[in-house]
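idk why but the lab printer keeps eating my pages so im just putting this in chat instead. protein + pyridoxal-5'-phosphate:
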Amino acid sequence: MTTDANRSGEIDPPARLMMGPGPINAYPRVLRAMSAQLLGQFDREFTDLMNETMALYRGVFRTSNRQTFLIDGTARAGIEAALVSLIEPGDRVLVPIFGRFGHLLVEIAGRCDAEVHTLETDWGTIFDQDRLAAAVDRVQPKLLAVCHGDTSTTMAQPLDRIGRHCRDCGVLVYVDSTATLGGMALPADDWALDVVSAGLQKCLGGPSGSAPITVSDRAAAVIRGRRHVEQGLAGPGAGPGPRPETGLRIRSNYFDLAMLMDYWGGERLNHHTESGTMLYGARECARLVLEEGLEARCRRHEIAGRALRAGLGAMGLALYGDPDHRMANVTGIWIPDGVDGEAVRGRMIRDFSIEIGTSFGPLKGRIWRIGTMGYNAARPPVLTTLAALGACLAAEGARIDPVAAIPAAAAVFERLPGEAPP
Ligand SMILES: Cc1ncc(COP(=O)(O)O)c(C=O)c1O
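predcted complex ->
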């Protein structure tokens, strides 16, 4: 008798070139690291790897924050951990919305029973930081929660001044850098950002499932005020029992950053079972960034994005959004009138095994999104994608010039040295 178990073979996914807004192809080195054998979570070899990973991510986040570690879960887990640990019911939180991921911050802050104040700007635009500063002065929130690169609109919000302003006003700043960490500059300490979290599946070139996070000392102090120790772990020297000394207990156990700090810190207080495989992968992602150098890495993303945009423009396609504030690593493209965007994406997969992104919300069916990040921020993936897109558009009857794209993109790579990945 045939059972489902013997019908299903060993896993063998098709070879795709993943040029959407993430996930993208992982670095082979990351995949190799993830195939290493497991260790016990309190094995000295493993805790050394945890400590190393913390140190590596301090380099990636450009921070000296002691509290720099991983949340087990996708990027959204990092966001949720930050917000649920910082926000107490009734706290005022300010969220600037310039795309879908601003709305996500509102949604999560709302679930924490925050008094949420929002600022909105049209999709495809960003906020002037003076406007953000004025809103901070007016609302006087406990927390400003903002996305750096919002993949839904492909826009990058400048954040180099607002953190300092918030620090002067005693306001904490949380930044979602899921889509930019390791591809666009975001120096947490220089920009005075208190909590920054990310995911692996974009510029860091790993799989989703681990969320690097960094927490400033002052944010850690706020979180520590809500610290308590689980009943079953409380014992001599473990600290406050089931109720925190000050502040309200954090409403999530899994995402309780105070507990996670105890787990990743010298106390090594038991919490979840850290995923060894994800730790190995996240560690390798950080090693790749630091080996290449953050500046070189950002430059590579910048060049790959520019080359892609030059090729798309030469082909006759119009780019989406404010040209001065595009993410380096994700580009939005208007789907030409009369062209079925999904038919083109379908052809790209069928004929070339290349994935490009669709979009959602008000942009559904109107733009494609192409990512040039991590392992794929390089000449061959960019030129291959342009060639394939030109062919698919021509096959769908679009009036474009598919031949012009490659020389235009190649010229950017020639003109701007620094493209090569490690
Ligand atoms: C800016 C941004 N934030 C958060 C997320 C959520 O990430 P995840 O799906 O890994 O939870 C994404 C995913 O695309 C994103 O682009």
